[in-house]
Each structure stands twice: as structure tokens, then as C-alpha cells.
Specification:
The chain is of the alpha/beta class. The chain folds into two domains: 12-223, Class I glutamine amidotransferase (GATase) domain (Rossmann fold); 237-338, Arc Repressor Mutant, subunit A (Orthogonal Bundle). The protein is 40% helix and 11% strand. It has a seven-stranded mixed beta sheet, with helices on both faces. Helix 1 links the parallel strand 2 (28-33) and strand 3. It comes from Planomonospora corallina. InterPro entries: Class_I_gatase-like, DJ-1/PfpI, Homeodomain-like_sf, HTH_AraC, HTH_AraC-typ_CS, INH-QAR. Keywords: DNA-binding, Transcription, Transcription regulation. This is GlxA family transcriptional regulator. It holds the Pfam family DJ-1_PfpI.
Length: 347
């Protein structure tokens, strides 16, 4: 069996020294299922830990009806979870795989929240996947800690739980005894990470191959988020100029030239621009160029060098640091994940 001492991958935050202790192998996994939850997310930890695979540990997975009785999914299917909350009291790993809705008028029950608090207090590893982070946040266990959830809901998580340090751009956060993940497949990433940190890369790789999924994905949520910077409406000079700029990104565009085209002084242009978009003209241009490069990587098989020039960068070398800073991975890695037919020559 491989050593559990593994280097944390890039998509996780480093464990906080104040909380982190070396992870012990786990064998008993309690999965807390709430009413009206999405079926796919609910099944993720069961799929990762519940199947018997040659060469991997046998985990005891307990599907727990966190609110008692059958569990109804958001698709109307009913699940007969065989365990009650008592089954989580001695589990090594307690997972909240998802939640019905962050804005649900039905909050998590006090009994379920107490089970999670007791699990943490006795030294179990407590995990939330996707929207399950809202349940974990309701326990108070995430106060003062970094955490993540699906990128669509990170702002809501921050507003509902201001004491949580929300990280919107990572696939998961490992704080040692508490871990949180991003959206649906981010839950798979985190579950494989749990295996990897306790049982090593070979075991995690075996499970990943069985699931036909990468054992580790590069980057974070940033590569999945559409980040359009709002532009002023067409029909006013500023909006018309920016619409023109979007059609000429491959050209050398300066802020002074855009201001002149809008028949404004540079100072007026800058002020109007910030009021309309919330950012500077230079940052808007850079952002739009990276977005254009993303779309070209998704829809064409042109070499990265050519795409860089079409997006207004001097070369692929000039594109890469800006692309990585905003998207989280290199242009070539992005194309590999989201692109169409492979190019004959990729940078």
C-alpha cells in the first residue's frame, strides 16, 4: 500500500497548520442525505467509496437519512436510506454530499448539525461537497476557515456566512479535519483526494480509472466560470466604442485611441468607463482578450500562437501568464479540457 504522505495538488488550498494533523486511514463513511437533494451529487461519495475494487480498501459506507424516513430527491425519486443519524456517531468520515437549496425555507435540523459538530469534536474528518458546504457552514465549524462551494453560490455563501473565508476559484479546500469542495465533479475530485492523502496515489488512481475520471484535475473552478465584464449598452458613445473594440481585439488598441473614438477626453473616458463597468479600460481590454482566446481554444484547432495574435497578444508567450492568472491553467491545458479537434501543433 502506498505511503499516505502525498504532496497536496494545486487545486486544493494548503492545510492550515493551526488545524492540520496527519490524516489517519479511514474505513467507515457516513453520508448524510437530506430531503429534496440532487441525485447525482448525493451519489458521488457512494460511488467513490461504496464499490468493491481489487487492490483498494473496503470502506463501510452508511447512507444516512439525515431527516428521518425516505429521502426524496429533487427529481421526485425516493431513496430508502437504511441508516439513521446514530450511524454517523462512530464514522471515521462524515460527508454532506449536497443540500436541497441554499435558500430553502427548511434549514438543516438541529439534530443533524449536532451530529456534525460531535463528529468533528471526537476527531472524525468532516466533509461537504458542492452545496453541502451550506450545511457545514450552519454548524459554525467553518467560521474563520477557508471553504468553497459551487462557483454560482460562492457569493451567496459569503453573504449568508460572513465568518467563512470563501474561496471561489478552487476545486476543493483541505483544512485537514474539515474539507469542502466545489460543484458536482469537484466532489469526485475531493473524494479521490481523501483516498490519495490516506492511502496513496496508486489506490486513488485505481479508483479513478474505475470511474473513468482523471485522478487529479489541474487548475480550479476558474476554468469553468464565464467571467464576462459588463459593457455599457449600445446607443451611447461609450457602448458603441466598446462594441467596436470587441470586433477589433486583434488590433493594437490603446485607451487613448478608444477615448478619442468616443469623442471624450482620457479623464472623462476613464471615469465613464469605471462607472459603467466597474473596472479600468486597460483591465477590460485584457479580460476581453483572454475571453476571446478561451472561445478560440474551444472552437478552433488553430495553434496557440495564432490564437494569441487573434486575441490581441504579441505572442503565445505573452498570452500564457494572463491566461493562467485568469483561468487557472495554461492555454494548452484549457484546450485539452474544453477544445474540439486536436490541433496539429499546440504550444
Amino acid at each position: 500500500m502506498s505511503s499516505p504522505a502525498e504532496t497536496p495538488p494545486a487545486s486544493t488550498s494548503p492545510a492550515s497548520p493551526a488545524f492540520f494533523t496527519p490524516p489517519a486511514p479511514f474505513s467507515t463513511v457516513a453520508v448524510l442525505l437530506f430531503d429534496e437533494i440532487p441525485l447525482f451529487e448525493a451519489s458521488v461519495p457512494i460511488a467513490v467509496f461504496g464499490e468493491r475494487r481489487p487492490g483498494t480498501p473496503e470502506f463501510e459506507v452508511r447512507a444516512v437519512a439525515a431527516e428521518g424516513g425516505p429521502v426524496r430527491t429533487d427529481a421526485g425519486l425516493t431513496l430508502d436510506a437504511p441508516y439513521g443519524l446514530a450511524a454517523a456517531e462512530d464514522a471515521d468520515l462524515v460527508i454532506v454530499p449536497t443540500w436541497r437549496s441554499p435558500l430553502s425555507p427548511r434549514p438543516p435540523s438541529p439534530e443533524a448539525l449536532d451530529v456534525l459538530r460531535r463528529a468533528h469534536a471526537r476527531g472524525a474528518t468532516v466533509v461537504s461537497l458542492c452545496l453541502g458546504t451550506f450545511v457545514l457552514a450552519a454548524t459554525g465549524l467553518l467560521d474563520g476557515r477557508p471553504a468553497t462551494t459551487h462557483w454560482r453560490y460562492t457569493d451567496l455563501l459569503a453573504s449568508m456566512h460572513p465568518r467563512v473565508e470563501v474561496r471561489p476559484d478552487v476545486l476543493y479546500v483541505d483544512e485537514g479535519d474539515i474539507l469542502t469542495s466545489a460543484g458536482s465533479t469537484g466532489g469526485i475530485d475531493l473524494c479521490l483526494h481523501l483516498v490519495r492523502r490516506s492511502y496513496g496515489t496508486r489506490v486513488a488512481g485505481t479508483i479513478a480509472r474505475s470511474l473513468v475520471t482523471p485522478p487529479h484535475r489541474a487548475g480550479g473552478q476558474a476554468q469553468y466560470i464565464d467571467h464576462p465584464v459588463p459593457a455599457p449598452a449600445t446607443g451611447d458613445p461609450l457602448g458603441d466604442v466598446l462594441d467596436w473594440a470587441l470586433r477589433h481585439l486583434e488590433e493594437e488598441l490603446t485607451v487613448d485611441a478608444l477615448a478619442a473614438r468616443a469623442l471624450m477626453s482620457r479623464r472623462t473616458f476613464d471615469r465613464r468607463f469605471r462607472q459603467a463597468t466597474g473596472t479600468t479600460p486597460a483591465q477590460w481590454l485584457l479580460h476581453q482578450r483572454v475571453l476571446h482566446a478561451q472561445r478560440l481554444l474551444e472552437t478552433t484547432d488553430e495553434p496557440v500562437e495564432r490564437i494569441a495574435r487573434r486575441a490581441g497578444f504579441a505572442s503565445a508567450v505573452a498570452l500564457r501568464p494572463h491566461f493562467r492568472r485568469r483561468v487557472g491553467i495554461s492555454p494548452a491545458a484549457y484546450r485539452s479540457a474544453f477544445g474540439g479537434p486536436p490541433a496539429g501543433a499546440l504550444a
